[in-house]
Each structure stands twice: as structure tokens, then as C-alpha cells.
Specification:
By secondary structure, the protein is mostly helical. The chain has a domain at 1-93: Leucine-rich Repeat Variant (Alpha Horseshoe). Helices cover 60% and strands 0% of the residues. It has helices at residues 7-13, 19-32, 37-41, 49-62, 68-71, 80-93, 96-104, 112-122, 128-134, 140-153, 159-164, 172-194, 202-219, 224-230, 236-249, 255-264, 268-281, 287-293, 300-308, 320-327, 332-351.
Length: 389
């Protein structure tokens, strides 16, 4: 008999008067992760503002981008607590479609102030294209609000748009300031990266790389476009510093370029840095690359750690056998991350009604209980490190 879906009850328990009920519901939704998103989205229109706020908060914790567009109406909710929760959650789930929907609210007199406030708090470069389009709106207030939001992004990709609107007297001052700021930012990035050039001392170069990475991280999202260009630099240490900064800045524009460099860069140290950077995102698109990287001794540990950080654990299921071998690896860190993934997968399989990884005639997670020879991956001797997919 199929299990009864208790999602609706769990949603209501998020605001239950008893603490243990609220804690249980929170833990359950976090465990389900992306699978819980649909049930939570359905409750965003609930008449109870406390529940709307708590559901928005939970969606922000799960960080699944399917919640982006459904959260937009709550950004202009009549209840302040709901707006605050939705705004905080939106920064973690907003995709291009959600940001475009938010920018369109700038042309709605009833909601434009709230939309502008959210855009100001987010400073998300994903809003760049719709904001540039709104600079040509027939609504002068919408144009001005879009320009003010675009100015805060300080994104080099907006330079051409600013040049085009210089003829608009209402936007000329903002355009002039923005172009100056973009120019100064680019000069700053070049100066920071130049500290890595013409330095042949290995120790001094490593110290300089750490300092350069920290300075680039401090520039934040406005630096991403130039850092993506730096991934193609001829000097390996520049590419390495750029990869590290991109991972810690956390802008999703970097995922695909980092994936490509993790596969193809001619320097293995740069590949390792790209893999570590991808681990900061926990993006499921990296799974195939990580499985391949585990085969290489140079990138094995970084790939194992990055794999353990993937948020959508369903993509790990096809690699269960590999992960089980990680758990018994001689390298303690590889074994640790393998154990983390096995724990997540066991919970997932139990939730789906399948057979948990640990539900066998022996406890394969307990190293004190030897596995029967007929079930051992590597025969009587078992695995001794050196993972293979």
C-alpha cells in the first residue's frame, strides 16, 4: 500500500503551537529538499500570513529555484513579515524568470516601490537584461527606477546600455556615474591581478595568490564578468585565483565556465581549484565531471568533497556503488565525505520506500564488522584506495 502523503499536515505544522511539531516539520522538509518544494509552493497563497511567511522562509532554506517565480507575489504582500521573509528567501531562489517578473513590477504604480526596494537589496546581476530593457519603457518613473537599480549592479555588461541612455536628460547623471564606476572597477581588477605577474618566487607567488583572491572576493558580483575573462588568462596562477574568487562570490554565471575549465584546463592545479569552486555552489550539473575527476589522484579529494556538497542528492543515486567504495577508502577525508553522502542517500531511499543502503545482512558502515567475501567489492582483499568509477 502506498504511503499517504503527509505534506499538507507538515506545512501546517510549521506554525504549530508546540515546538517539537515545528521542529519536526522543519527537519522533514529540509531532509526532503527539492522534493518538498511543490507542497510548500501550494501553501504560498494560504490566508494565514504567519504560514505564508514561514513557508517562504523554508523555501529560502531549501534553495530550489523552482520557487523563484511563485515567490514574486509575496514580495508585495500586504503583511510586512511576509514581505521580509519572501525577500530574504528570494535571494536564494531567484532565477532569470523570477527576476524578470520582479523588474516588470517597476511599471506597476501600486507595487513599483516595493519592487525597487527588493532589487536594491538583492543586487542580483540576473536582473541585468530586464533592467536594461526597462530603460526604454514609456513610463518615466519606471525608467528612473530601473536605472537606479542597474547602477547598483555596477556590471561591466551594462556599459553599452549606459552609453545609449546618455541622451535621456533624466538618466544622464546616473549613466555618467555608472560608466565611471565600471571603468574604475576594471582598472582595480587589472591592478589586483597584475600582482601575480612577473613573480617567479614560488613562496611569494603563493602568498600573493591568497591576497589577490581575497581582494577579488571583496569586490563581489560586479567583478564576475572580468573574473570569467580571467579564467582564460595565459598565466595559471591568474586562472587559479579567478576560480577561487568565483567560487566564494557564488554567482551562478560562473558554474558553466568553471565546469569547462575543470575538464579542460591544461594545468591540473587550476582544474583542482575549479572543482573546489564548484563545490561552493552544490550544483547538480557538476556530477558527471566530479565522477570523472575522482579517478585522477590529483583531483580525487577535491572532487569527493565537492560531490558531497551537491544539494540535489537524487543525482547521487546512480553512483551509490562508487560512494560506498569512498566510505571504505584509506584516505580519511575521502572516507568521511563518502559517509556523508551515504547518510543522505539512506534517508532518501527510506523516504521513497526503497531499501536503505545500510539495510543488509551486515552493517557495511561499521568497519568492525567484516563484509562477507561474496559481497565485497574487491574480493577477499576489498578496496585499498585508488577509487575507480
Amino acid at each position: 500500500m502506498a504511503k499517504k502523503d503527509k505534506s499538507e499536515d507538515l506545512v501546517k505544522d510549521l506554525i504549530h503551537e508546540e515546538d517539537w511539531k515545528r521542529m519536526n516539520a522543519t527537519a522533514e522538509f529540509l531532509k526532503r529538499g527539492p522534493e518538498a518544494v511543490a507542497a510548500l509552493i501550494s501553501a504560498l497563497a494560504d490566508e494565514n500570513p504567519r504560514l505564508r511567511a514561514e513557508v517562504a522562509h523554508m523555501l529560502g532554506r531549501i534553495r530550489n529555484r523552482a520557487a523563484g517565480v511563485p515567490l514574486v507575489p509575496l514580495l508585495t504582500d500586504p503583511e510586512r513579515a511576509v514581505r521580509e521573509a519572501a525577500t530574504e528567501a528570494f535571494r536564494y531562489v531567484a532565477d532569470e524568470a523570477a527576476l524578470a517578473a520582479l523588474v516588470r513590477l517597476l511599471e506597476d504604480p501600486a507595487h513599483r516601490d516595493a519592487a525597487a526596494a527588493v532589487l536594491g537589496r538583492l543586487k542580483d546581476p540576473g536582473a541585468l537584461v530586464p533592467l536594461i530593457a526597462t530603460l526604454k519603457s514609456q513610463d518615466p518613473t519606471a525608467r528612473l527606477m530601473a536605472a537606479e537599480s542597474l547602477e547598483q549592479l555596477a556590471d561591466p555588461r551594462s556599459a553599452d546600455a549606459w552609453i545609449e541612455v546618455m541622451a535621456d536628460p533624466d538618466l544622464r547623471d546616473i549613466a555618467s556615474r555608472s560608466l565611471k564606476r565600471i571603468s574604475e572597477l576594471r582598472e582595480r581588477i587589472v591592478a589586483i591581478l597584475d600582482r601575480l605577474r612577473d613573480n617567479e618566487d614560488v613562496v611569494a607567488l603563493e602568498e600573493a595568490r591568497i591576497g589577490v583572491s581575497m581582494d577579488l572576493i571583496a569586490l563581489g558580483r560586479p567583478a564576475v564578468a572580468d573574473l570569467l575573462e580571467a579564467l582564460e588568462d595565459d598565466l595559471w596562477v591568474v586562472r587559479e585565483a579567478a576560480a577561487q574568487a568565483l567560487g566564494l562570490i557564488g554567482d551562478y554565471r560562473a558554474v558553466e565556465p568553471l565546469l569547462r575549465k575543470a575538464k579542460t584546463d591544461r594545468d591540473m592545479g587550476v582544474r583542482e581549484s575549479c572543482i573546489k569552486a564548484l563545490g561552493q555552489f552544490g550544483d547538480s550539473r557538476s556530477i558527471d565531471m566530479l565522477v570523472e575527476a575522482i579517478k585522477d589522484p590529483t583531483t580525487r579529494l577535491a572532487a569527493t568533497e565537492a560531490m558531497s556538497k551537491i544539494k540535489d542528492i537524487t543525482v547521487l543515486v546512480p553512483h551509490l556503488e562508487l560512494i560506498q567504495r569512498m566510505k571504505t577508502d584509506r584516505d580519511g577525508l575521502v572516507s568521511y565525505h563518502g559517509g556523508l553522502m551515504l547518510d543522505k542517500l539512506a534517508k532518501l531511499l527510506e523516504e521513497e520506500g526503497g531499501k536503505p543502503a545500510a539495510e543488509k545482512e551486515y552493517d557495511e558502515w561499521d568497519e568492525e564488522v567484516p563484509a562477507p567475501a561474496s559481497k565485497a567489492t574487491g574480493g577477499a582483499g576489498g578496496q585499498r584506495g585508488g577509487l575507480t568509477a
